[in-house]
Design brief:
Blueprint lengths: L3 H15 L3 E5 L8 H6 L4 E3 L4 H13 L3 E7 H6 L2 H10 L5 E5 L17 H5 L5 E4 L4 H13 L4 E5 L17 E4 L5 E5 L3 H7 L6 E5 L1 E3 L3 H9 L4 E9 L4 H7 L6 E7 L10 H7 L4 H12 L9
Helix pairs in contact: 1-7, 3-5, 8-12, 9-10
Pathway: Metabolic intermediate biosynthesis; 1-deoxy-D-xylulose 5-phosphate biosynthesis; 1-deoxy-D-xylulose 5-phosphate from D-glyceraldehyde 3-phosphate and pyruvate: step 1/1
Keywords: Isoprene biosynthesis, Magnesium, Metal-binding, Thiamine biosynthesis, Thiamine pyrophosphate, Transferase
Family: Belongs to the transketolase family. DXPS subfamily.
Amino acid sequence: MDTMRDRFAPVVSRLLDEDPRVAVVLAAIGTDSFAAAARRHPDRVINVGIREQLLIGAGAGLALTGLRPVLHTFASFLVERPFEQVKLDLGHQDVGAVLVSAAASFDWPAGGYTHMAPGDVALLDTLDGWTVHVPGHPDEAETLLRHAVAADDDKVYVRLSAQANARALPVDGQRTHTVREGRRGVVVAVGPMLDAVLAATEGLDVTVLYAATVRPFDAAALRRAAEGAAADVVLVEPYLAGTSTAAANDALADVPHRVLGLGVGRRELRRYGTLSEHVSAHGLDPRSLRERITGFLTGGRVAAHG
């Protein structure tokens, strides 16, 4: 199976051909994949080099002229390093862009901590008006990329990952899907966490929801699920643990409930290791998830990871 990032350049290259408003801005990363598109559209495929602040600033400038810019690099260089430009050049000037990241939280461990960004979605949460897509399969990534580019002048973040579920679900850029129904709690799996959550909850009497779009948070779907189950909610996210707990609490503000946020821990893991080793170290493998979910739902102690 190809990866989400394998889909990125072909999809956006086709959009460049189809829509004269679309432009692509790169910061050295991914330039080879857009070489053919750059020959066809030299004025709308721009490489600013290793200058991530300029990446955002140039994208904002293109948006001010009426173009729909797609900006791409690793998540740590797209959200964290140029965050002031994301806040001011896009947010303060009230213009939109599509930010498409790679490497997710720790997809390339050999790159070290400079190439890891578990706090990217939490950081964007400090700003107003962002849509955040977290696809769990390359087919979903393709659909959500098209949604993002077509979203007029909205500010959209598309978080691509090397991790993926075995099959795609129909995603529309808005709604959360009910994958399994139960009565003893609700587990929300975000993006590439779905397969691990389904394995971890096999045989448990819980509702499993799937979210490939996390901002805006689908509060209505969570409320519906909580009506038919105990209002105990577990969020399993592929980035910083607890990123969406406030959104879940707000959704259930008038309902007695408990929320557990599982995801990447705050403690830095200083050995590079492999992607799967990082998943296990943060307690996001099926065995660890099952232990932590059942512990929470039965009122026991939940083991901390990371």
